[in-house]
Amino acid sequence: MTGEKEMKVSIVIPTYYRSKDLTELFDSLLRQSVKPFEVIVVDDTPTDAIKNVCEEYCGKFRELGIKLIYIRNQREPSLTIARNIGVNMAKGDIILFLDSDVILYPDYIEKCLEVFEVKKNALGAQGWYSAASRVRRRTLYLRNPLRKLFFLGYLAENSCKIFGYPYVLTEIVNCESMSGCNMAYKREVFEELELKFDENLKRYSYMEDMLFSHSLHKMRPNSLYITPYAKLIHKWSKEGRTERRNNLLSETQYMRSCRKYVLMKLFGIRGLFIFFMQTIGLILFGIIRKIQGKSSFSK
């Protein structure tokens, strides 16, 4: 790192169950080439499983000069509330949000901080998880044009638009939104710009990361970046998702209401059009998936 002043990193980890996943994330944090200043775990779990993991690892972090802070969310379980609690506790120059089901490469923090050094206008940065790179080129040709037409998530090359994610990334590029599983922001985003996560989005707060990051993008265009050098694995853990799987109808309704809320907040009346097009697209892809039975058309 070449910066005149070493930036302190506060890591905020909201979690709901996932105690086993959290141990793997903790292990990857202990191996970082640049150590975080503090790790803040905000727990929505009604049991002591997460608390017990934090107690187990507290000494390991202390040996490396890292503060491990455990907070039980006393309000209603909600990802946005947990994020805001973490922000209020954080003391670092950079606040890095991580999902509890990610594993970081050993130089992840180092490479993430380099973005803020190289890109002087950067207010936010995220690393790159490359699972999308396994998608076959034929699949991209079949899927991407339709997904773009209906404003659904699609894969791109060296590009990170609001609905697009890079399946190939060879350089640091601008983002229009960032993924909540790993996103780092300068403290001034919360203090000077006074942004906060929208607590009207409850529970796991579907699309809250898009709402927050794209709002920042609109306020400060070209201030968000994604780097291929800060790598991580996102496991998409099933732990903590049981209630969602057990009531798919209500979850579909919940996600639809969140999607409409976020799009309206970001785009106003145009958001209704995007919501309508996405709904048609999701129905269409559902029909295609049933007819062909191919995962290439799955959501």
List keywords for this structure.
299 residues; alpha/beta; Spore Coat Polysaccharide Biosynthesis Protein SpsA, Chain A; 9-stranded mixed sheet; 42% helix
What does this protein structure show overall?
The chain is of the alpha/beta class and 299 residues long. The protein has 10 helices and 11 strands. Strand 2, helix 2 and strand 3 form a beta-alpha-beta unit. Helix 7 runs parallel beside helix 9. The longest helix has 24 residues. 38% of the residues are buried.
| Rg result | 19 Å
Q: What global shape is seen?
A: globular
* N/C terminus separation: 39 Å
How many beta-strand segments? Answer: 11
* Oligomer class: single chain
Percentage of residues in strands:
15-25%
Mean pLDDT across every amino acid position: 90
Please state the second-level CATH architecture.
Answer: Alpha-Beta Complex
State the gist of this model.
The chain has helices at 19-30, 49-63, 79-89, 108-118, 137-149, 188-191, 208-219, 242-246, 248-267, 269-292; strands at 9-15, 38-43, 67-72, 94-98, 102-104, 124-128, 154-157, 164-168, 173-174, 182-186, 224-234.
